[in-house]
Structure formats: C-alpha cells, structure tokens
Amino acid sequence: MRFEDHPHHDNPQIKSVLDQLVDGAVSVLGGNFIGAWLQGSSATGHFDRHSDIDFVIGVECDLSQDEVNSLHKFHCQLYHDESPWAQHLEGSYIPREILRDYRLAGKEVWYLDHGSTTLERSAHDNTIAVKWIIREKGVVLVGPDPSTIMDPIPVAELRLDIFQTFANWAEVIFENPKEISNHFFQTFAVLSYCRMLNDIRRGEIGSKRDGAEWVQTNLDPKWRDLIDRAWLGRPNPAVSVRRSADPEDVQRTVEFIRVCLEEASELLRSFGHDPESIRDAA
Predict the structure, then answer these.
(1) 32, 102, 110, 113 — which has fewest CB within 10 A?
(2) CA dist., res. 160 & res. 186, Å (int)
(3) Under DSSP, is residue 95 helix (H, G, I), strand (E, B) or coil?
(4) Are 181 and 81 within one domain?
(5) Residue 281 — very low, low, confident or very high, per pLDDT cuts 50/70/90?
(6) Contact status, residue 159 vs residue 273, Cβ threshold 8 Å
(7) Structural domain harbouring 274
(8) Is the CB of residue 137 less than 8 Å from the CB of residue 187?
C-alpha cells in the first residue's frame, strides 16, 4: 500500500511527523537512502491512539559513524516536534542485503527505540516476522514496493520463527516471572502470546486485536477476563511500565503462556513440524 492510500495520510499530525522523518533521513543519508516503509500495527491493522508508529528505512550499506551522529541530532529535533506522535516513533535503518535475505535475520542494525532520540545497535526489527510484515503488508512512504527488493519468506520459516520466539520468551518468564512483574510487560505478554498463537495458526502476521479475539473465542473462557484487562491496560505505556502488575495477574499470565505454548506445539505438529526439536535447537 502507498502512504497516499493509508488512513495516516488523512491525519495531519501523523502525516507531518512522517514527512519530517522521510525528509530528514533523505537529507542525512543522501545516496545511501533506498526507501521508507511503515510496519507494525500501521501495516497489520488496528492501529489506534495507543500504538507506536513503527518504521523501517532501507539503506544501501550500514550507516557510517557520521551518519549515525547526524541522525542522532535529527531524531532529537524531531522528538521535540509539536505533534505528540513525534514521541512515538520506533524503527530501524536496515542495509539492503540484510533487508533482502530473511536468512540474515538476527544481525544487529541501527535502531531507534520507542521514546528514544538516539540510535543503538539491535536486532529488534531484523526478524523474520518483521521482514514478512514489511514485504507483505508494508506501507510505502517513499521508495520501491518492498516486495521488489525482498525475498519471499516461506510460510514454514515464518511459523518456525514465531514459535522460536514464542518458546524462548516463555522459558525466560517461566524461570523468572519477575520479567513480567510490571504492568506494561504483563499486559504486553498476554496480548503478544495471543497474537503469536493466532499467527502460527494462520501462517501470517496479524494484529494483537485479532489474536486476542481469536483466543477469547477458541480457548478456555476462563482467560477472557485476563485478556480484557490486558487490552484495557494498553494506554500510557510510560506510566504503565513504572507500575507493578497485580500479583494474581502475573501468576495467571504464566499459566496462560503455558497453555499457549501447548496449543502452539499442537499446531506445529499438525503442520508437520517437531516443536521439541525447534526448542532444543534454540
């Protein structure tokens, strides 16, 4: 989809921030700039006033230190723009070859975290799942259609990648439930596991809202209230991350993740994969 056909184009505050993002990146990067695309909820659906604006900027080669320094200055200026959306940008600058090849997922690239004004090295957006969103559903701000510069991702690879993320994060939480002891991460975990379970089932990336609705309809009804509270807990993440989660919700979230992991394992078996071998290889 081109940006001109996306609902963001009709929101003057969002459009202003994105226009500045593109103009600033082009000004700093010059011939190193390939294109800019939206991913995340802007691309998968159910974007709302509590969402981040997730972007990816393609570059011909990895950023030089001079480019990084200039982008630090630019993002600091943009962060203080009068539009509140300027504080909710999150995205990465990904070199062409890494962007093209899904097998290069996991390599660190320059990344702007939500609420930050400086870039850091991270593989946050260099995942098979994010690359699938960019290629299949990305919103073109400027530049080529991403499907013309990115290799297609086999559905089996996508499912296995989602499950690996699913299982790895689950093991961390099982070992130390304090990982989700604040309100933001507890609610984020509930909604993320809903989405990932539904994504494995469908073989494509959808929204947290779609995942939550599918789980509420198809899993034990006892989880509905936990999911409802997680959805209602999305506003004001900067405040939410400083609040402690309800201890009972933390315990139930751990139990919910165990159930989701069992369901995901059964789904993978139905598609001809061995979930235990995937977890052992992680």
Answers:
(1) 113
(2) 24
(3) strand
(4) no
(5) low
(6) yes
(7) 155-281
(8) no
Domain boundary among 99, 123, 148: 148
207: left (phi over 0), alpha (psi -120 to 50) or beta: beta
Q: Which of 148, 169, 203 is the last residue of a domain?
A: 148
In this structure, what token pair is assigned to residue 175? 């070992």
Q: How far apart are CA 130 and CA 119, in angstroms?
A: 19
270: burial class by Cβ within 10 Å (0-12, 13-18, 19+)?
exposed
Q: Give the pair of three-digit tokens for residue 227.
A: 């999911």
Question: Is the domain of 50 the same as that of 170?
Answer: no
Phi, psi (degrees; rounded to nearest 5) at 121: -80, 130
Give the relative orientation of helices 155-175 and 247-270 as an angle to the nearest 10 degrees: 150
How does the average pLDDT of the chain come out, rounded? 93
Q: In this structure, are 142 and 232 located in the same domain? A: no
The domain that holds 113 is classified in CATH as 3.30.460
213 is written with which tokens? Answer: 């609705």
Distance between CA atoms of residues 46 and 20, nearest Å: 24
For residue 96 the two structure tokens come to 């062409």
Could you give the angle at which helices 224-232 and 183-202 cross, rounded to 10 degrees? 120
Which has the minimum average pLDDT: 41-50, 132-141, 224-233?
41-50
Beta strands in the chain (DSSP E): 33-39, 53-59, 89-95, 109-112, 119-122, 139-142
SS3 of the chain: helix, strand, coil, percent, to 5 = 60, 15, 25
CB 108 within 8 A of CB 122: yes
Token pair 């990084």: residue: 68
141 and 219 inside one domain: no
Q: What percent of the chain has pLDDT over 90?
A: 80
Q: Do residues 101 and 65 touch, judged by C-beta distance below 8 A?
A: no
Encoded amino acid at 59, one letter: V
